[in-house]
Amino acid sequence: MRQLLRSGARLFWRRSVDDEVDDELTEHIEMLVRRLELEGLSPEAAREAAARRFGDLTMVRNECRTLAHDVEEQMIRQDFWQQLRQDVAYGTRTLRRAPLYTIIAVLTLAIGIGASASIFSVVHAVLLRALPYRDADRVVAVWNAYRQGGTVSHTAIAPAEFADVMDQNRSFDAVAAISRGAANLTGSCGGSASCEPERANGYTVSPSLFTVLGTAPALGRAFTESDGAAGAEPVALLSHSVWRRRFGGDSAVIGRGITVNGRLRTIVGVMPAEVRFPDAPIGFLRDRGDIWMPNAWQNNRGEERGNQYLGFLARMRPGTSMTEVRTDLETISTRFRAAFPDRYDPSTVSWALDAIPLREQMVGDVRRPLLIVMGAVVLLMLIACANVAHLSLARGAARRQEFAVRTALGAGRMRLVRQLLTESLMLGAMSGVLGIAIAVGSTRVLVRLDPGMIPQLDATRVNGIVLVFALLATLFCALLVGVVPALRQSMVSVHDAIRAGRGAAAQPRRRVRSVLVVAEVAMALVILVGAGLLTRSFLALQKVDQGFSTGPALTFAVTLPRARYDSAARMIAFHDRLQSELASIPGVEAVSAIDPLPLGGTSWSGTFHVEGQPTARGAEAPHGEYNVALPGFIDALQLRLVTGRDFEVTDGPGAPAVAIVDESLAAQYWPGEDPLGKRISSNGDSGPWVTVIGVVRHVHRSGPKNAGEPQIYFAYRQRVQTPLSYVLRTTVDPLSIVGAVRSQVASLDRDLPVARVASMATLESAALARDRFNALIFLVFAGTALLLAAIGLYGVMAYLVAQRQAELGLRLALGGGPGDVARLVIGDGMRMALLGIVLGTVASLALGRALDQLLYGTKPTDPVTYAVIAATLALVALLASAIPALRAMKADPVDALRA
Amino acid sequence: MPDSNRSILQGTLDLLILKTLSWGPRHGYAIARWIEETTDDVMRIEEGSLYPALYRMQKRGWIKSGWGESDIGKRIRIYSLTPAGRAELRAQSAQWDVMVKAMARVLRPA
């Protein structure tokens, strides 16, 4: 634009600059000639002498012209900066003269910019930033996909399935299988580094895993194929964090030993800090890795195919598409179905191998919530802009006379537009600075609120890209609120404006403002409804009866290393002693242990069989959640015993096998019968059978959201395993006895790590963290949106009242009561608000389905939420119009008429 | 005119113009005449180099131009000194003094 102006100016000015130079030189020669004539020379001689003194006139003239143009351009540039300085100085004065306008505009924009920049930071970190793997787009996860009705569930892979896909596929460069397991790290630390026994997240992986991921160790070497072979020297790769924690970051760690689950392994490498695969949950592989151990999983192909416990990653060949991969897997699936019809061709569900891109796998869970939040941010930003647009319009109306006068005094239209733009950009700059500060602050808060389930969120920072985003957002806002009013102002006719003063030409603008208010109320309602629904859903979750007590209790986990606890008797003996030692700690009411721990984040489930109810061929066997527990677990967890009894010490290896089931299992398989004495089996229709000795209430094992499946509890003594989680019900603050617990464990086994120490309350809170996070973000937005909408509504009503002062005064003078005037003003405001509420409700109903996935026990069309939100907005609208209405009532008719 | 001569003149010409304008705003012709009269025609201004010098000095910000009337009432460009020009005048005069003293010492050894 400025370029265009300047080149236009150059065309226009070049002529006159050249002319001026010529005139000046000609004039000089004329004067010189006149003097020479006065000195007595003839006119011809004088002219000749003058020309001689000038030398080559053409050359001089050209030199002067060139220089004159330079000078001219310099002046234009100086003028520009000078005018800008003037504009800025003038703008500063105007903004300072209207501090309320300035503060509200800046705050409004800053909140809009800050909120959007900080949410954009999160979206960028989670959805847009590259995964820390080379060509991450070529990495896929392979699952057993079971389709039933409209739902697909992706489950783990059996070693035999992995081996077959490894042999038969045509689309992968490399494949890797992963299984997870706890890793007790003991002994052999470097120097001063911490040497406590520690339970870490260990993964037993194909040696090719890091080839598939395309990441190399930061130190040492990756696994080689031979590392995975049976009988190879046991080795391990460490995560950066374990390396720092246990070895103090000593680079001489390569080749040293580390004891994992009682077995000494040689450290061959350390992974880079950003790679702790899995870096985000991949199906059931949820915890970030601390240590990796190699195993050639394809050699376990002899295991039963139903034993599916592996994660499966593959790197696609370059240039292979997802469609080709799926086709390839379908071919293999067809072969599986033909070879094992019992296993892969049940009538009730359809099975196939399926591949999902790793990125989708990692961010899939959070994409939708993030996009919804992003949508809320855009709405908030629009509300903020609408507000400032109101303000600018109102200010513009107030300044019509000022601009008219300035036009009359010779200010050009462009000059006025530039003045207004300068003011907008100044507002924008101030809001931008404040907005970035808000963004930095709120991003920090967001990261701290992280429930730990959002991939890469901990790496969120307000970075360069985000600042550019904020800058663009600022410019967008500034221009939006600046340009439109500026163009309007510049069309003011001097004559009309000065004569009419105020009032005239307000009509079309009033319509613009009404549209803005209606839109603002509607957008605020959409955000508020979202927040309301999520809050209600959160409250509903908190009210869920989880079937066990979340009162004061301490939980921790131990995993007995097989190397030292190599018999069931040894394990039972250890737990017997630990249980009685822990019970003697003052403040402990009850002690028992269970696995998996409710809310502990791990799950264990499988098929079972009910005596007398054989599974039909091709049908699915009953499926349920398994647990093992020590005697006393019902008391320690405060489960409610419906009938029968808890496990006893006598329910040991030699005694008859017993189990406790939950109400739902009993009701489903023995309706109307006494479940005690009935028998079930975890092996097959022919037993061995386990007798039910008790029935308890159903437990929400993985949090209130998930009701889960029927549950079976086995007696630990009859079914030993290495991991077990203790639960200590206390009368004192659970965390106050942690020291005593640790020393009791250490007194029994110095090398046994005490893992996952947490109070039950912490576990419960963690189970709801994601929902709390969602509700909280939306509540913050909703509060802001409500505030901004209220400011906007109030601003417009106050302005409209000021505009109609004369009319209202007249009404009062003609005998209208103050009540009529108030009704008129409030009626105006409420009409706009109600229209906004109606439109917002329609929009929310349309958009509400997007929230469905995030809601628990709350429909996206929940009438209570809608009613409460609509009423709240209406109330706010009433207040926002009541204040100007009160002012209108107090208007003095005489004043109004005189004005 | 030989080039060597001209370059010497160039430096001095700027100084002369600055000095002239320090007495008040003048148009180009008046500047030339004033210099001639003050130096008793010793310093004859080469009119052909006067104007390029004036424009160059404008560009440097030493002088600025406005509009005025000539003796016979014609619109004519009037030059005046800027604060920067005044500073330049002081600096160049001081330099000139140093040089004159140095030259004097060389040419008339005591």
Topology:
The complex is a heterodimer of chains A (899) and B (110).
Chain A: H1 2-38, H2 43-54, H3 57-97, H4 99-128, E1 139-148, E2 151-155, H5 159-168, E3 172-186, E4 198-205, H6 209-213, E5 219-220, E6 235-238, H7 240-247, E7 257-260, E8 263-270, E9 291-294, E10 311-316, H8 322-339, H9 341-344, E11 350-357, H10 358-398, H11 400-408, H12 413-449, H13 464-490, H14 494-500, H15 506-543, E12 553-559, H16 568-583, E13 588-595, E14 605-607, E15 609-610, E16 623-629, H17 633-637, E17 641-644, E18 658-662, H18 663-669, E19 679-681, E20 690-696, E21 711-715, E22 723-730, H19 738-748, E23 755-759, H20 760-767, H21 769-803, H22 805-813, H23 818-847, H24 863-889, H25 893-898
Parallel strand pairs in A: 4-9, 6-8, 16-21, 18-20
Antiparallel strand pairs in A: 1-2, 1-10, 1-11, 3-4, 3-7, 3-10, 5-8, 6-9, 7-8, 12-22, 12-23, 13-16, 13-22, 14-16, 15-19, 17-20, 18-21, 19-20
Helix pairs in contact in A: 1-2, 1-3, 3-12, 4-10, 4-12, 4-13, 10-13, 10-15, 10-21, 11-14, 12-13, 15-21, 15-23, 15-24, 16-19, 21-23, 21-24, 23-24
Chain B: H1 3-22, E1 26-27, H2 28-38, H3 47-60, E2 63-69, E3 75-81, H4 83-107
Antiparallel strand pairs in B: 1-3, 2-3
Helix pairs in contact in B: 1-2, 1-3, 1-4
